[in-house]
Amino acid sequence: MEKLEVRGVSKCFDGAPVLEDISITLRQGELVCLLGVSGGGKTTLFNIISGLVEPDRGQVFLDGEDVTGKPGRISYMLQKDLLLPYRTIQDNVALPLLLRGEKKREARAKAAALFPEFGLEGTERKYPAQLSGGMRQRAALLRTYLFSQNVALLDEPFSALDTLTKSAIHDWYLDVMERIRLSTLFITHDIDEAILLSDRIYLLTGKPGRVTDEIVIREPKPRRKDFNLTPAFLAYKKRILERL
Fold first, then answer.
1. How far is it, in rounded angstroms, from Cα 190 to Cα 35?
2. Which residue among 22, 38, 42, 203 sits deepest, i.e. has the most Cβ atoms within 10 Å of its Cβ?
3. Which residues of the chain have pLDDT under 70?
4. Would you say domain 1-74+150-244 falls under CATH 3.40.50.300?
């Protein structure tokens, strides 16, 4: 059974079609990327998957259960970390548990237990302004994980990071995904990033957006440090550029 399945989703806004007959899957432990040009409907698709927007046609399934139009079942992290500046990192991370009605002490304890796993030891009582961009993204990713364990939607979460920080957090995120068996659906406009991180890539192109190709990245993980310099990497990139 697929962890997440989007089946035949279409959406119009004010009579203008934005998505047409989108069907994609996400398996346990996979990182699957949606890649395409701006305006292709990727964020609208994420809004539908997370239950924030209802499709005109089609359904979304989580572990075989129909969750179409049901918010609060699948976590969604935007490009900005959106940490609350007046809350400590611990309280920012614990926010999803508090919103579910858990007591503050219990929510803090559950969040704190995962700080070492996410490389956040020692930041519990700090505020967002005291952390680097990479550390804020780690905190935001932990909060996303606590909101909906095992499945995460990430909308360009690393685009604001510099190249060296982005490379380090890529390695860290793939390691965390494997250890906690997290499944990730990921939006990016960065072709190199998509190839380096993904198990599979869906190309979403046109207006309305349609899935026009599915590319399986067969390089085993963890990928070699110079993978982006290999003929295999360049072949994947050439194939993507030809189809976008």
1. 8
2. 22
3. 1, 79, 148-149, 160, 164
4. yes
